[in-house]
Amino acid sequence: MKQRRHLVYLLLAVMAGAGAALCWSGVWSLVDVPPIADGEPATVSIVYHPPLLVITWLLATTAGVLTVLGVAGLRRRYHSATLVGYTP
Q1: CA dist., res. 69 & res. 61, Å (int)
Q2: What is the dihedral sign for C-alpha 44, 50, 52, 53?
Q3: What letter would DSSP give residue 38?
Q4: Which among 43, 55, 56, 58 is least surrounded, fewest beta carbons within 10 Å?
């Protein structure tokens, strides 16, 4: 039963990572910047959208935490099963 919980953590981590990637693709946009002085060319700049940036950060952090919980739980479960009869 506990193994299923850790697999759910890993599945949720993949979903959070996909959500972070999807949010990151919409976090920036290009805008035209007019020239400062006469005779200079116009330039293009990148503008970041703060709300999407925060959501991306939170989803990426959540994905990392869930990955650590899932992998640590699976490793702990595996190693405790292999050390059942071990007595030093």
Answers
A1: 12
A2: positive
A3: T
A4: 43
Taking CA atoms, 64 is separated from 23, 57, 75, 84, in Å, by 16, 11, 16, 30
pLDDT digits over 15-50, tens only? 999 999 999 999 999 999 999 888 899 999 999 999
d(CA 50, CA 27): 8
Q: Are 47 and 31 in contact (CB under 8 A)?
A: yes
Q: Cα separation of 59 and 3, whole Å?
A: 24
Q: Which residue has the tokens 């200079």?
A: 40
| pTM for the structure as a whole | 0.75
Q: Where are the domains of the chain?
A: 2-32+46-80
